[in-house]
Amino acid sequence: MKKVLIANRGEIARRVIRTLKKMNIQSVAVYSEADKNAPFVHEADEAVLIGPAPSAESYLVQDKIIEVAQALNVNGIHPGYGFLSENASFAERLKKEGITLIGPSAEAMQLMGDKLSAKQAVKKYDVPLVPGIDKAVVDFNEAKEIAVQIGFPVLIKASAGGGGKGMRLVEREEDMKEQMELAQSEARSSFGDDAVFVEKFVTKPRHIEIQIFADNHGNVIHLHERECSIQRRHQKVIEEAPSAILTPALRKEMGEAACNVAKACNYSGAGTVEFLLDADLNFYFLEMNTRLQVEHPVTEEITGLDLVEMQIKVAQNEKLSIQQSDVQLNGHAMEVRVYAEDALNNFMPDIGRLKRYQKPVADYIRIDDAFEEGMEIPIYYDPMIAKLVTWGDTREKSIERMIDAIDHYEISGLRTTLDFGKYVMKHPAFRSGDFDTNFVKHHFADPKIMHTAQEEEKRALEASIDQIWNDVIERQNAEVKSEMMN
């Protein structure tokens, strides 16, 4: 490839551009009116305005993106994540136009994009599934009968989509009808598809995902796991690699299962297989994300691999340059997503201007960000400002470095999730590894506790300063007394 268009924006566009520069490949950015002053626009070799701020009029308009690609003789398109990254019709159109999508086939996207078809496909490879059914349910009485058979609590889940939309927890039989209607209504409005299915609710679930890579020559490997259990509204806020609780044997077993998922859909490129892990360390297939993940940096930090470079090489029909035995697991990496959100107000977006934006700097800190000081955070897109990543040779070291990095990350003008990230890093449940996807529910039910933690830290700091000051005064008095005696 000589020229690649990035069909995305923000930090992921900057991330892709960095690797393209390293590979001596020309980069093309497309941008909306809201992003005209964004760093990724100026860092690309070429940049083209494709429409107004709303994504439905810019980043999601396939015709405009393809038109730019053709006009500038682009060889490949990297979709990043979100927007068109898992859009099978876009993948099919690019194939017809002779433009290489840096991602999997449309067929793989379609198969894994529907949770029911994905379950049916991986079942043939003996991948563990959560007890339930792998077909759509429309009739309430049928759904209730299934729920009674597998036992409450159960989850009603939308077949299409993700992000917690169209998903309802039902703890009692008498709540079944209402929750099913709500799940179907939300699925219909979010995805245009009200197909749902019923499965057993896993107690104390942990969200463990496996990064896989496959080429077009039958080779499939995994790059270990990421722990993504710290979530709000079913969406990740903090990720780490590796998990604090996986044994080498379990890591190998889950990795092999993830590779089988890739084989089940004839996958190519970077993909992530998500599993639920219960309190007894039993794991169950959840879904496959057919794209690069937001949290891919923690995998890069522990393996030393450039996942975007690997994506591009696979898209160029190259074989994977490494085998499973070559994949390293070096140290531990943490990632805090720095969102423009108010954690004390149910993580509501807090859009505004970055009056001050100063990043911490150290050789063990990585920051993938989208903005610069003085810029406005647009209301039209995801409110993520940056991804703050730290590495350490142990989990404890990585956590301590994250706390220090948060302390030196200066952002003013709006509220962010940095304080929440620090709260998690210092929490005994997180430090011990004894947590699950209900961390926020169990340990952050009353957000005022974060204020309490901050006040305690402030008092401790003030006490430390007072002690230092007292020591200085005592030393000065001693020196004066010594001089008078002499």
UniProtKB/TrEMBL annotation:
SUPFAM superfamilies the record matches: Glutathione synthetase ATP-binding domain-like, PreATP-grasp domain, Rudiment single hybrid motif
Keyword Ribonucleoprotein: no
PROSITE patterns per the UniProt record, alphabetical: ATP_GRASP, BC, CPSASE_1, CPSASE_2
Keyword Disulfide bond: no
GO function terms (MF aspect): ATP binding; ligase activity; metal ion binding
Gene3D superfamilies for the chain: ATP-grasp fold, B domain
Keyword field: ATP-binding, Biotin, Ligase, Magnesium, Metal-binding, Nucleotide-binding
Domain named ATP-grasp: residues: 119-316
Domain Biotin carboxylation: 1-445
Superkingdom field: Bacteria
NCBIfam families: PRK08591.1 (NF006367)
Protein name (database record): Biotin carboxylase
Organism for this UniProt entry: Brumimicrobium salinarum
